[in-house]
């Protein structure tokens, strides 16, 4: 995995910050989770209260590998903020954490396009943040690690923000725990290193079209596909009417 997320910019107001860190500092909790799951190089997190502060920070020369923002963050709405952030750092993924999935779907349908790369339903757990980091890292490294090196993958197809926000942390924890168990069974240190690096990657699609693209690209190395029986056909379809 040559590309990693090492610096995260978190945009949230004081109230959301308190909720995020109610059980302790979020960066310390992520570092603890990384250690328990035998993961290296936990990312550093910088927090600002408003999108304006975040934009000023990036304009001053700060570089981030991931921008995470809560939904209610000030007078500048998250969609406008994401567009302006993409102009400054086009390759940096932007993730929205929200509790109001219906409102988000309505706003997306009104805007049709958005600079936000991923949307997750915040569940007050650092497990979700770790899953988001790993999902983005898996996606960034998929072509090299799967197609060139031969690492295997699991494809998750789910259109519900609330559901995949629950599935992903559980799936990653299971895969990482199984990977730890396989490392312990290795005969020597080289095998331990290889097994640790070769854990299955998790790829996610939120509609049929994207799922087919991922399947066709990585089908030779897919361990399996996880999906329910109904999902959105096309990216901008309404989730209530555009299902297969």
Topology:
Layout: E1 7-11, H1 14-20, H2 26-36, E2 44-48, H3 51-59, E3 66-70, H4 78-88, E4 94-98, H5 101-111, E5 118-121, H6 126-149, E6 153-157, H7 161-184, H8 189-197, E7 201-205, H9 208-218, E8 222-227
Parallel strand pairs: 1-2, 1-3, 3-4, 4-5, 6-7, 6-8
What does this structure look like?
The protein is of the alpha/beta class. The protein is built from 9 helices and 8 strands. The strands form 2 sheets. A 5-stranded parallel beta sheet has the order 2-1-3-4-5. The chain has a 3-stranded parallel beta sheet with strand order 7-6-8. Helix 5 links the parallel strand 4 (94-98) and strand 5 (118-121). Helix 3 (51-59) runs parallel beside helix 4 (78-88), helix 6 (126-149) crosses helix 7 (161-184) and helix 7 runs antiparallel to helix 8 (189-197). The longest helix is centred in the middle third of the chain and has 24 residues, at 126-149.
Keywords for this structure?
244 residues, alpha/beta, 5-stranded parallel beta sheet, 9 helices, 16% strand
Main beta-sheet strand count, sense and barrel state? 5 strands, parallel
Distance between the termini: 35 Å
Amount of beta strand: 15-25%
Q: What overall geometry do the principal axes of the alpha carbons give?
A: globular
Alpha carbon gyration radius: 18 Å
Percent helix, as a range, is 40-55%
Beta strands, count: 8
């Amino acid at each position: 995995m040559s590309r990693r997320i090492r610096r995260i910019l978190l945009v949230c107001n004081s109230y959301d910050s308190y909720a995020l860190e109610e059980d302790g500092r979020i960066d310390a909790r992520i570092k603890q989770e990384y250690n328990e799951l035998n993961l290296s190089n936990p990312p550093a997190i910088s927090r600002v209260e408003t999108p304006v502060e975040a934009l000023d920070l990036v304009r001053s020369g700060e570089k981030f590998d991931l921008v995470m923002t809560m939904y209610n963050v000030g007078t500048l709405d998250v969609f406008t903020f994401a567009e302006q952030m993409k102009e400054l750092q086009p390759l940096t993924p932007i993730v929205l954490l929200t509790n109001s999935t219906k409102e988000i779907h309505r706003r997306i349908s009104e805007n049709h396009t958005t600079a936000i790369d991923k949307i997750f339903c915040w569940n007050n757990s650092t497990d979700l943040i770790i899953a988001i980091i790993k999902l983005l890292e898996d996606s960034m490294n998929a072509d090299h690690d799967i197609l060139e090196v031969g690492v295997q993958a699991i494809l998750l197809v789910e259109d519900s923000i609330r559901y995949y926000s629950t599935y992903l942390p559980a799936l990653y924890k299971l895969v990482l725990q199984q990977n730890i168990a396989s490392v312990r069974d290795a005969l020597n240190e080289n095998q331990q290193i290889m097994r640790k690096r070769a854990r299955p990657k998790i790829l996610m699609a939120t509609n049929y079209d994207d799922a087919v693209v991922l399947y066709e690209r990585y089908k030779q190395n897919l361990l399996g596909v996880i999906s329910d029986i109904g999902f959105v056909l096309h990216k901008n379809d309404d989730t209530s009417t555009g299902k297969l």
